[in-house]
Each structure stands twice: as structure tokens, then as C-alpha cells.
Specification:
The structure holds two protein chains of two kinds. Helices cover about 5% and strands about 50% of the residues of chain A. By secondary structure, chain A is mainly beta. In chain A, strand 21 and strand 22 form a beta hairpin. Classes of the chains: A mainly beta, B mainly beta.
């Protein structure tokens, strides 16, 4: 019998696992990396106006309209007459996604750097300062970079080979994996959001608030970073408060001392994309469901912020696919994605969702600004401007077209 | 595969010729094919051995049957093994005897469906089979018939080739139009076997 047991144990020792080797090829968008040094060396900001291929953040300053082309730069328009915006220049800034203007100085990000331009002649902005490596963590297409040596400046389609070795045994559920993939790819987008309040520039990325003192407008001085948490998307200043929207809620900061924001409260909501606008009493938040944002509901939430330390949900209304929103007096404009631009009477916040004033169904809209001369709407086909002197009846003034390359 | 076919045909020829002069022997077994003593995720095999006694202790012949292996959450895979097998019996005349066997052959994978979807075609190919075994055989009273209990190690190789007529959109970039174009997977299954048999 002893022999039997020895035999049995010997067999068990030999057996008990599967080895699986996979070798494959896949098509992927492989990032092209560059160093910040080479990106800076190639910087040649101003060129003549070019067609807009893709729209990003829009910004108005005096009679000028700035339209960001994500990752490429900024289109500058003379918008004295919103019915005839005139293209003035294209400011080529690699890696740019946001901008802000204060006292004739334009601030724009370029991957890890903050650039300051003199806007004395908006047709030819002049680079004044480059704050190097101030945005240390970038989320670029799912790649987290914290070094200026690996900046993604583009993608190329590549056939990638990979091989992988796995071991499997039901007695050891930890699969051992040796991944020999020679490259990888992902999806997503970099985000940085700028705003200016109390002579300070606040820039948020996915997780962090970056703070700059711009009292000397030509020379922003980095103050500090404040960790907020994951999923940061929007930043909205109102009086001495800063409302930061993330995909899990809204964080309110007191910026009475602009260089030292103090967190007042955190309002948590379901997981969704989350732009915010605010008035004296209420914050209006749109929540969008989807793959990128998570969550399942498309909502407009009205949050009572009369006590900034205790924001409270007041009302919720169902929307279809809300993106940006803007508040003009008692009218709330909501970009409802492919369901159009909608305007609501916001005089009674308990009834906003039931008081639809107008729907522009054909206007696939993503973001909106209520400017002094016009309502500016970023849509799929271009940047549209409307006369909104009659809040309930928009009148189209002009469209700056988006000309897609394919 | 070519060499294997030639070897099996040669063995078959030899057995056919030798069966005239040498004693025919048969051993049929049911195997539990598993990863270890707790019989987690077990498969099974049914095999039949047909051979001739080269010597009173040694038999040589062909072993065939069917095997089913559960594989790494990919469902069960079926094989038709065909192997040359040599059996050694320590004391053929005793009521109880230790015995050892060694299978060396090829398992065919055609029992698994080669799937063709709109975008994906995958096909299986069989591979080398090695199955040494050790055990005891117990003769029935006043008979040449016996039953056996054995344990062993079973190595089975097979492969699967996936070909996409257009890139799949499932790996690793989900942008439409990107993904896997082809994949070759090679499986080396190392299993423990427990066999109960009957022969004469």
C-alpha cells in the first residue's frame, strides 16, 4: 500500500495545472510621445485664421470670442457684431484644452505648461511667460503622465503584436500572467478647466486644483496644488465661492482669501458627468449618464446653496442627455446633447423642468455661454450665436462652422 | 503529424501480422481527468486498448477512445485520442499485481466545433498526448479477466487559432474599427488521472 500512496502523490505533484500561451495581433491607436523640451522648441504660436475642425471650450472677453480646438490651440474672433464674427488669428498651442483672460492677458495650458499671452493686439498675441511643468499630472487618453518626458502629441494606427502566458489551476485561482505586449492603447481625454476669480487663476485637472496668483497679470505665480478627488470636470466661480463639479458630486470652496481656498462642503450625487452654474440661492447641476461618466440617469438638479456649508437638493427634473448649461436672469439654457438646446423659466425653481420655454431640436449642443451681446452655443456643426433679448424666443445671428477633416 | 500517422500505421500493420502468432489482449478504462485529489473541474475519458502480448509481462497495442477536459472557464473540450500504448505487468500470474502503462500519441480535436461568426473564425487543432500510469490489477477468480485501479499523469497539447475577417472591436481599444486581427492560443494541459478498468 505504501507504494500506491507514493505513486499517487507523485502523480499529483506532476499534474494540476494548465499552461496557456496566447500570441496575437491587434490594431491599436498607439500614442506618439514627445518631450516637453521638443514641444517647446517647436512653439510658433500665431498663424492666420484656419477652419475649425473640432470645438472645445469657448470664452468671451470684451468683444472677442475665443474657441478652443482641443489639443491644437485657440481660434480668435472679433465679435463686435455677433451676427458677423470675424476670424482674426489662430493661436497654435499644442496640448491646449482651456483658457481664461484677465486684464488683457490670455492664460492657456500647453500640456504641462501654463502660457501667458499679451492680448494688446488680439490678431497677434505675444507670448509673455511660460510657467513650465506646473500641470504635473496629465490624463491623456488613459495615460497618466507625471513626467515631461512622455507627452502624447498624437496617435498612429499600428498593428501591435503581443504574447501572454497564463497558468490555471482551480486549486490556485490567482492566475499568473506574464504580459509581453509591446504597446498599448486606450481612450479618453485630457481635461483642464480654468477660471479666474479674485486675481487668481484656478485650474483643475482630473484630481487637483492648481492655484496661480495673477496679480501681476503678465507673470502668473504658482501658489499651490490642492487635492480634491477623482473625476473633476468643471469649475464655476460665484462671488467668493468656487463650485467644482466632479462626476460624483460638487465641492464648494470659500475663496475669500483667494490664495487659500477653504473647503466648505461636498454635495454627493449619483455618478454622472456634471456641469454646474450658480446664482445667489441655487446651484443648477446637470447629470449625464453614459460610458465615460458612469451613472444611469440624465437629470437637472437644483441645489439650495443659501447655506454653503449645507447644500441641499431642492428639486430634480429628468432630461435626456444634458451637457453644459447657462443662466441668464430667470432663464436657464440647457444643452441637451442630440436632443437640442432647451430653455426653461427658472423664476420658480420648484417648477423649472415643467416650464420649458423653447427647444431647438436640430441644434446638437454641448456648451453654452450667456454673453453680453449674444447667447453662444457650441454645437456639433459649429459655434452658433443667438440674439436672446427675448429670452423665450432665440433668434439666430450667425454660425461659425466646424469643418471636419473626414 | 505525418510521422505520427506513419508510426501508427506501422504499429497497426505489425499488430495485424503479429496477432496471428501472439496472444491478443484488451484493457478498457474509465478515467477521471482532474487537477488534483479534490476532483475540482474534472473531466473524463473512456479508452479501449487492443494489443498483443510481446512477452508475458509486456503488451503493445493501440489505445483510443474519447476525452473531455474542462479548460480554464472556456467550456469543455473534446478529443479523440489515438496512441501507441505499452503495458507492463509485474506478476501476470498472480491474483494481484502491480502494473504500469505508457501512452504516447495524438489527440484529434475535430469534435470541437470550429466556429464561424460574421467577424470571427476559430479552429481547433489537436496535439501530443502522453499518459503514463501506475496501478494494480486484480484477477477474477479462476479467470484471465481482471479489473484494475490506476493513477497517472496526462499531458495533452492542443491549439486554437482565431482569425478576424475584420478587426474585432473588443480588444483593447474599443474605438470602432480597432481590435484583434488574429490570435493563436496554445494549451498545455497537465492533469492527474484516476482510472478504473476491465480487461482480459
Amino acid at each position: 500500500m505504501k507504494r500506491i500512496w507514493l505513486i499517487l502523490l507523485g502523480c499529483i505533484a506532476l499534474a494540476s495545472c494548465d499552461k496557456i500561451e496566447s500570441k496575437g495581433m491587434y490594431l491599436a491607436r498607439v500614442p506618439i510621445f514627445e518631450t516637453m523640451e521638443s514641444i517647446r522648441a517647436k512653439a510658433n504660436p500665431v498663424s492666420s485664421p484656419t477652419a475649425i475642425v473640432q470645438t472645445g471650450k469657448i470664452y468671451i472677453y470684451q468683444d472677442y470670442l475665443f474657441i478652443n480646438e482641443p489639443g491644437k490651440g485657440i481660434h480668435i474672433f472679433n465679435n463686435v457684431d455677433p451676427s458677423k464674427p470675424l476670424a482674426m488669428a489662430f493661436l497654435s498651442i499644442p496640448g491646449n484644452v482651456d483658457l481664461a483672460v484677465l486684464d488683457g492677458k490670455l492664460y492657456a495650458d500647453s500640456f504641462t505648461d501654463l502660457l501667458t499671452f499679451e492680448l494688446e493686439n488680439p490678431a497677434s498675441p505675444k507670448l509673455l511667460t511660460r510657467n513650465k511643468d506646473v500641470f504635473k499630472m496629465l490624463l491623456q487618453m488613459d495615460y497618466f503622465n507625471n513626467t515631461a518626458d512622455r507627452i502624447i502629441t498624437g496617435f498612429r494606427d499600428s498593428l501591435v503584436s503581443y504574447s501572454q502566458k497564463d497558468k490555471y489551476s482551480p486549486y490556485d485561482r490567482k492566475d499568473i500572467m506574464y504580459n509581453e505586449t509591446n504597446s498599448g492603447a486606450g481612450k479618453g481625454g485630457s481635461t483642464a478647466r480654468f477660471t479666474i476669480a479674485n486675481k487668481h487663476l484656478y485650474a483643475v485637472d482630473q484630481t487637483t486644483l492648481h492655484l496661480f496668483n495673477v496679480q501681476n497679470a503678465s507673470k502668473p505665480a504658482y501658489v499651490k496644488d490642492i487635492k480634491i478627488g477623482p473625476g473633476i470636470e468643471t469649475i464655476f466661480p460665484f462671488k467668493n465661492s468656487l463650485f467644482i463639479g466632479s462626476n460624483t458630486g460638487m465641492v464648494i470652496y470659500d475663496i475669500t482669501t483667494a490664495s487659500a481656498p477653504v473647503e466648505l462642503s461636498r454635495y454627493a450625487h449619483i455618478r454622472a458627468c456634471d456641469p454646474v452654474v450658480v446664482n445667489e440661492k441655487y446651484a443648477f447641476v446637470t447629470l449625464r449618464a453614459g460610458v465615460v461618466c458612469g451613472g444611469l440617469q440624465n437629470l437637472l438638479e437644483v441645489i439650495d446653496i443659501q447655506d454653503l456649508r449645507k447644500p441641499m437638493l431642492k428639486n430634480t427634473f429628468t432630461l435626456e442627455s444634458p451637457y453644459g448649461l447657462a443662466l441668464a436672469d430667470q432663464t436657464l439654457y440647457v444643452c441637451d446633447g442630440k436632443f437640442g438646446l432647451k430653455s426653461f423659466d427658472a423664476s420658480d425653481v420648484s417648477q423649472i423642468g415643467n416650464k420649458l420655454l423653447e427647444t431647438h431640436k436640430d441644434l446638437m449642443s454641448l456648451d453654452v455661454i450667456a454673453g453680453p451681446k449674444s447667447l453662444i452655443v457650441v454645437g456639433e456643426k459649429g459655434v452658433h450665436q443667438y440674439d436672446y433679448s427675448n429670452k423665450a424666443k432665440l433668434k439666430e445671428l450667425s454660425t461659425i462652422p466646424v469643418i471636419r477633416s473626414n | 503529424m505525418k510521422r505520427f500517422s506513419i508510426a501508427i500505421l506501422a504499429l497497426l500493420g505489425y499488430l495485424t501480422v503479429d496477432a496471428q502468432t501472439k496472444k491478443y489482449t484488451n484493457h478498457n478504462e474509465f478515467s477521471v481527468i482532474t487537477y488534483g485529489p479534490a476532483f475540482l473541474e474534472s473531466g473524463f475519458g473512456l479508452h479501449t486498448f487492443h494489443g498483443v502480448q510481446l512477452h508475458e509481462n509486456i503488451a503493445l497495442g493501440l489505445n483510443t477512445g474519447v476525452d473531455r477536459y474542462p479548460v480554464n472557464n472556456e467550456g469543455s473540450k473534446w478529443f479523440l485520442p489515438l496512441s501507441a500504448k505499452v503495458n507492463y505487468v509485474e506478476f501476470p500470474d498472480r491474483k494481484r499485481s502491480f502494473f504500469a502503462g505508457l501512452d504516447l500519441g495524438y489527440s484529434f480535436a475535430f469534435l470541437n466545433k470550429n466556429l464561424v461568426e460574421s467577424n470571427l473564425k476559430y479552429e481547433y487543432q489537436g496535439g501530443l498526448l502522453v499518459n503514463p500510469q501506475l496501478g494494480w490489477r486484480f484477477k477474477f477468480k479462476n479467470s484471465a479477466k481482471y479489473w484494475s485501479l490506476a493513477t497517472g499523469y496526462r499531458y495533452q497539447h492542443y491549439s486554437r487559432k482565431d482569425t478576424y475577417t475584420r478587426p474585432s472591436a473588443n480588444l483593447p481599444d474599443t474605438s470602432i474599427g480597432y481590435g484583434t486581427t488574429q490570435m493563436d492560443k496554445k494549451y498545455d494541459l497537465h492533469r492527474f488521472t484516476l482510472q478504473v478498468g476491465f480487461g482480459f
